[in-house]
Design brief:
Layout: E1 11-22, H1 31-45, E2 50-52, E3 75-84, E4 87-96, E5 99-107, H2 115-126, E6 136-147, H3 149-152, H4 156-164, E7 177-179, E8 182-187, E9 197-205, H5 209-218, H6 226-269, H7 277-321, H8 327-401, H9 412-429, H10 433-441, H11 444-470, H12 476-498
Parallel strand pairs: 6-9
Antiparallel strand pairs: 1-5, 1-6, 2-3, 3-4, 4-5, 7-8, 8-9
Helix pairs in contact: 6-7, 6-8, 7-8, 8-9, 9-11, 11-12
Length: about 500
């Protein structure tokens, strides 16, 4: 029964359960989709088998985008219901903005049914909401009832005591929040329920029963039921704030990582850096690459923070649109939005400061790397010019003096081929690291072909010289092939070290 004494505490007690999901709930196999299906099957197991609409697989188009407005009417995706003997039970899957809201109503319209029995009946079928899973933003239950005139006239503290005797679990505490003619209490959540679960008690005098119905379930001409709008926006805000708390340490650590990476670049590119120019270049390029990676990660985190801030701002605007009469109810959520905005501003500024310093360090590091590349290219160019110049000078002297090199004829073709291949290969050895990286995708095959030809020519020269020296034939093709493979292997190893 509704309570003890000469009259019941609340008449026509009803239960409303709500589940708040992202649109991932409409994708089969997701955790949110499994939860949605579980509630749907629970409703059917309680006899709600009259279906309205087909099973949803996507959100329908909406007239207004994003948060920041109360929609003219929730977009019903599907529903099942049962009505008999004055009792009305219904589960509705609807879309509010870009979220999916599952609402179940158990309204027996019979004072022999109380809140404890109605709540136990639903949660026994659907199961208690547990830990929040991806795509599930939270859940809520509302206990609705109409107060007889004698109960409605009780002093607030006396009314709280009388209601606490019939509310299942922890009862109301303190003064109610008045929303028009509806009195609302936030009830404590017992242990064993999910962190995103909420309990509300909403009652009104009998003459305000229509207002209670419009506020809790039916909605108003202005849009969705204010209770639905409030709870879905509050669930979104609380979910966003919970995620912000969870990722806060990682964001601060990310800002520190950007700073450490910048310090490594500064150390590698400073004048006090030790080591040969080649090793310094490799170390500096590695530090610059690591800094770029962590800066991209920080930029992605900053974009997520900005999206979260926009989402929270839209949710805040929606709460304000519920009207002044709901100010007492939405106060905790507005305070959460202000806290989250301050956290986002602080963390975002830390990331921005770290990125600005990293940008300056990266600019100086790139300039230092360019200087090292030019110095390395100059040294290699000088080396190859010296080799080719000495060969050309020797050939010019031989030709001008009419000197004939005492070289056996079998060795001469191999020597000519080797010198020609050497002239082709030497310029490639002077390529800086950036061009070597490009060779990986554009010209590496041609580069390796040149070194294979050079190795084969060297093998030809070695084989012909050894055959002449030993005065017996040798497998020239085999030796040339072996040296070609060795040259390619050396070049591949050099590529790996340089890139």
């Amino acid at each position: 029964m509704s309570g003890s004494g000469p009259f019941p505490v609340a008449l026509r007690q009803a239960f409303v359960g709500r589940l708040f999901l992202t649109d991932a709930a409409l994708v089969a196999g997701t955790a949110a989709g499994v939860m949605l299906r579980r509630w749907w099957e629970a409703a059917r197991s309680l006899g709600m088998v009259d279906a309205v609409g087909a099973w949803p697989d996507r959100l329908p188009p909406r007239d207004r985008g994003g948060f920041g407005g109360v929609e003219s009417r929730p977009r019903v995706l599907a529903a099942v219901q049962r009505s008999a003997g004055g009792a009305y039970e219904m589960l509705v899957v609807s879309a509010v903005h870009d979220m999916v809201v599952v609402s179940v109503l158990l309204a027996p319209n019979d004072d022999r049914h109380d809140w404890a029995g109605l709540a136990g009946r639903w949660w026994g079928a659907a199961g208690r909401p547990g830990a929040v899973v991806p795509g599930v933003l939270g859940s809520a239950e509302q206990l609705l009832g109409e107060l007889p005139a004698a109960v409605a006239a009780l002093a607030p503290q006396v009314l709280v005591g009388r209601l606490g005797s019939v509310v299942p679990g922890p009862g109301p505490e303190g003064a109610a929040v008045a929303v028009g003619g509806v009195r609302v209490w936030e009830l404590p959540v017992p242990s064993g329920w999910g962190a995103g679960h909420r309990r509300l008690l909403a009652v009104s005098a009998e003459e305000d029963a229509d207002e209670l119905s419009r506020w809790s379930w039916q909605g108003t001409q202005a849009g969705a039921p204010p209770a639905t709008v409030y709870l879905v926006v509050a669930a979104r805000i609380r979910h966003q704030c919970a995620e912000l708390r969870a990722e806060g340490p990682a964001l601060w650590e990310l800002a520190e990582r950007v700073g450490r990476a910048a310090e490594e670049v500064a150390a590698a590119g400073g004048v006090a850096a030790e080591g040969a120019p080649g090793s310094r270049l490799l170390g500096l390029e590695g530090a610059l690459g690591a800094l770029e990676v962590v800066r991209e990660e920080a930029a992605a985190a900053t974009r997520r923070l900005r999206r979260r801030e926009l989402d929270l701002s839209g949710a805040e605007e929606t709460l304000h649109l519920l009207g002044e009469e709901s100010s007492g109810l939405v106060g905790p959520e507005l305070r959460l939005v202000r806290w989250a905005r301050a956290q986002i501003g602080t963390v975002g500024e830390s990331l921005a400061l770290a990125d600005r310093r990293a940008e300056e360090v990266a600019r100086r590091g790139s300039a230092a790397a360019d200087r090292l590349v030019r110095a390395r290219r100059d040294r290699l160019t000088l080396g190859q010019t010296s080799v080719l110049g000495s060969l050309l000078l020797a050939l010019a002297a031989i030709q001008s003096l009419g000197y004939r090199v005492p070289m056996p004829k079998p060795v001469q073709p191999g020597l000519i081929a080797f010198l020609a291949s050497l002239a082709l290969v030497l310029p490639w050895l002077a390529l800086p690291r950036q061009e070597a990286v490009l060779l990986r995708s554009f010209g590496r095959g041609f580069d390796l072909l040149l070194f294979a030809v050079s190795g084969a020519c060297a093998g030809w020269l070695v084989a012909s010289s050894a055959a002449w020296w030993l005065d017996r034939p040798l497998p020239t093709l085999v030796i040339a092939g072996v040296l070609a493979a060795v040259a390619v292997g050396v070049r591949v190893t050099a590529f790996r070290r340089r890139t």
